[in-house]
TrEMBL record:
One of its GO terms (cellular component) is cytoplasm. GO terms for biological process: cell division. This is Cell division protein ZapE. GO terms for molecular function: ATP binding; ATP hydrolysis activity. Keywords: ATP-binding, Cell cycle, Cell division, Nucleotide-binding. InterPro entries: ATPase_AFG1-like, P-loop_NTPase. The lineage of its organism: Bacteria, Pseudomonadati, Pseudomonadota, Alphaproteobacteria, Rhodospirillales.
Length: 330
């Protein structure tokens, strides 16, 4: 990284390769990026979350298409080079945290966008929980995405951060992860937990694309997501949606889990499937609920089947569970 202190080369592709830093959740990738960004001269580098960049990219494209008459456009019908200039803001280094491709709209433009940015001589530094070959692994039309993986390997040094220490677990130590009852005090605690885990990133709504359908995330910051119980279990979601959430996020916060029973059988069934997905992917859960796990579904049809969920909710509070590495897509 010290080589970036030199002057910017006008070559069509950067002489200094970029860096793709990947590794398990909580190993300090974002911390290293922050230290690197802070070490550069002011105005040299732009640092933002990958999803922030893609939101900005889509907003710019939409604005140009709707506000600029076709006769006044100077991009020969291709806005990507102009977009690359806008996103890099004339900086020599672009730092992108937590790259993860879930949306087909992102997948279809990210390769050309990265090529245009690096053609400007901008050095791109990326962090991700996934090695390049695992990006957008089960996405639609993935064959059109594969050239981007090749571009990463061509123009970036791919480095795995294999630290034995989980910094996420460090931040979660001492956290109460199961709060009763729901209400303003519990909501305030969930907000403080999310702020602590977000590592300085501002939470914002996000949309996951699952089987060409949108799954709305109330608030997300990197690999941290927040929902209400109604968002996840009163809506018509299924196992594929919960698997996508569990694969994408390593910490999920859920507020306002009610007592369950035959009266809300459908919501209870979805909650069981959700907890199974989170548990199987070692996703950390922080939640507020109307009762402790063993009292959530106290009696009635379905109470016996709910006992496995009770066991998992109990285990998911243990430090031994929280210390396990998050499991992404198989």
């Amino acid at each position: 990284m010290a080589r970036l202190a030199g002057t910017r080369a006008p070559a069509p592709a950067p002489k200094i390769p970029g860096l793709y830093l990947f590794g398990a959740v909580g190993r300090g990738k974002s911390m290293l990026m922050d230290l690197f960004h802070a070490s550069l001269p002011e105005g040299t580098s732009r640092r933002l979350h990958f999803h922030e960049m893609m939101r900005e990219a889509h907003a710019q494209l939409h604005r140009w298409r709707t506000q600029t008459p076709a006769s006044a456009r100077t991009d020969s019908g291709d806005p990507i080079p102009r977009l690359a200039h806008a996103l890099s803001e004339n900086r020599r280094v672009l730092c992108l945290d937590e790259m993860d491709i879930q949306d087909i709209g992102d997948a279809m433009i990210v390769g050309r966008l990265f090529q245009a940015i690096t053609d400007l001589g901008v050095v791109v530094v990326v962090t991700s929980n996934r090695e390049p070959d695992d990006l957008y692994r089960h996405g639609l039309q993935r064959e059109k995405f594969l050239p981007f993986i090749a571009l990463i390997k061509e123009r970036m040094e791919v480095v795995e951060l294999a630290s034995a220490r989980d910094y996420r677990l460090d931040r979660m130590k001492g956290m109460t992860v199961y709060i009763t009852p729901p209400g303003p005090a519990a909501d305030d605690w969930l907000t403080r937990c999310m702020t602590r885990l977000a590592n300085g990133e501002t939470p914002a709504p996000r949309i996951l694309s699952v089987d060409e359908r949108p799954v709305r995330v109330r608030a997300a910051a990197g690999p941290i997501a927040r929902f209400t119980f109604a968002d996840l279990c009163a809506a018509p979601l299924g196992s594929h949606d919960y698997l996508a959430i569990a694969e994408t996020f390593d910490v999920v916060l859920i507020s306002d889990i009610p007592c369950l029973g035959p009266h809300n059988r459908d919501e209870a069934r979805r909650f069981v499937v959700l907890i199974d997905a989170l548990y199987d992917h070692r996703t950390a859960l922080i939640c507020s609920a109307a009762a402790p796990p063993h009292e959530l579904y106290p009696s009635g049809d379905g109470a016996f089947e709910f006992e496995r969920t009770v066991s998992r909710l109990m285990e998911m509070q243990a430090e031994s569970y929280l210390g396990q590495a998050h499991l992404g897509p198989a």
